[in-house]
Amino acid sequence: MPITLLKSLELHSDKLWSIDSAKGLMATASSDRKIKLVNLRATDIREVEELDDSTHKKSVRSVAFRPHSSILAAGSFDSTISVWGQDENEDTQGTFQETELLAIIEGHENEVKSVAWSHAGEFLASCSRDKSVWIWEADEMGEEYECLSVLQEHSQDVKHVAWHPSMNLLASSSYDDTIRLWREDSDDWECVTVLNGHEGTVWCSAFETSESQLRLVSCSDDATVRVWKYVEEGDDGEDIWTLEAVLPRIHSRAVYSVSWSPGGFIASVGSDGLLVVYKETELGTWEVVAEKEEAHGVFEINTVKWANVNNKELLLTGGDDGNANVWSFDP
Amino acid sequence: RLLAKEAYLNDAVAPGLTDTDTDDSELEEAEDPIDAQEVYDMIAHISDPEHPLTLGQLAVVNLPDIDVRENKDKTKISEVIVKITPTITHCSLATLIGLGIRVRLERSLPPRYRITILLKSGSHQSENQVNKQLNDKERVAAACDNDQLLGVVSKMLSTCK
């Protein structure tokens, strides 16, 4: 089994919902209303900071690091988004610096379910039970936010938003069982395609890191993981996408999270407690190369993220036990 | 959830303290598996939100509609499926009743149980919609973050033994 547990961190007293990682740091969000930071580079992989827990009045559902910065955004069931960062002007060599609250973004009517930064760190996307996706433009300091667009085409809660790793293309997953893709079009954002096929809530999606092709992986309450592929531009300005593959049906219950590694592996986790890694053997054909049962004991797993730390591929998972597990993966 | 976690840990530790000679398999047999009657007893005394009666008295919950799929290995997932019968097919409180049952079971059962709450087939005009909502863990978690809603649920659960 090429998946090996390196460390299990007991971080939260309630469900751990979301993990993100950048520059050797891991951030976690939980129903205990706390956000924590963990140093993945340290040999003992340890918690380094707990952000001010009086900021959110309800569960923190999602965390996302802004690329090319040390800024973190967090979405909460209290309907707000908090943005955190460090004062980079101060000389703090070798000394611990506390992360400060930079901004609170208000706008959604109710629970914020997911936040995500575009590849250049220019845009922040958020989504909510209010059925909308908002696109915010951020200033360089991360302190000012202007809403550019409110996208209201989903008919139900929007569960998750994900940006493409090198293009301004956004995917939103919904309780209405669909995924919508959005692109900037002469000053506004437009839905360029709707991906139909899942037979239940779509919980999460992730784009492939690739220069030559455009693909998206998604996972659902219907217990499947699917890969979608861009085909061509249609006549009416819409993009044409097709379902390329349904990955091997190994999950027995809802699949809550997927992550596509820069090296081409897909990982999925869900209600059945399984952590699965898939490999593409030839274009459009996938096989399971590793699986870990009860990866969080008897608890459900809500999130999985690939992270590259010290040139090693790590898998980060978070579950209802409140723990974050750090796994090594050897292909 | 936290209470359930604690109870589960105590259960797992207690037999080992009283009898050091038992091996693992005997230890697990010593624990009573949960059956449908126990699940029924946990939820039958929940009060209906609009009648002065319990869900058991109103036959909203019924013993034959509770299915327990017990995995003997306590390190694996087990399942509890409860089918409820609302008193009228357009009952606007079906979602609230289902939420009350889910909260009660999540607090009472060890965390290895996955709980599915469904409306009995044909018992409600918005069956699929209500079922989807009752089994969406994120919506349930958000409902439990809502003090007003949690207050109503707590009142329903106050008649539980």
From TrEMBL, chain A:
Q: Where in the cell is it found?
A: Cytoplasm; Nucleus
Which Pfam families does this UniProt record tie to the protein? WD40
Q: Which InterPro entries match?
A: CIAO1/Cia1, WD40/YVTN_repeat-like_dom_sf, WD40_PAC1, WD40_repeat_dom_sf, WD40_rpt
Tell me the subunit arrangement.
Answer: Interacts with NAR1.
Q: Does the keyword tRNA processing apply?
A: no
* UniProt record similarity statement: Belongs to the WD repeat CIA1 family.
Q: Which GO BP terms apply? A: iron-sulfur cluster assembly; tRNA wobble uridine modification
A single GO cellular-component term on record: cytosol
Q: What is this protein called?
A: Probable cytosolic iron-sulfur protein assembly protein 1
Annotated keywords: Cytoplasm, Nucleus, Repeat, WD repeat
Known role: Essential component of the cytosolic iron-sulfur (Fe/S) protein assembly machinery. Required for the maturation of extramitochondrial Fe/S proteins.
In residue terms, where are the WD repeats? 53-84, 105-137, 151-182, 195-229
Instruction: Please indicate if the UniProt record lists Metal-binding as a keyword.
Output: no
Principal subcellular localisation of the protein: cytoplasm
Q: Which domain of life is it from?
A: Eukaryota
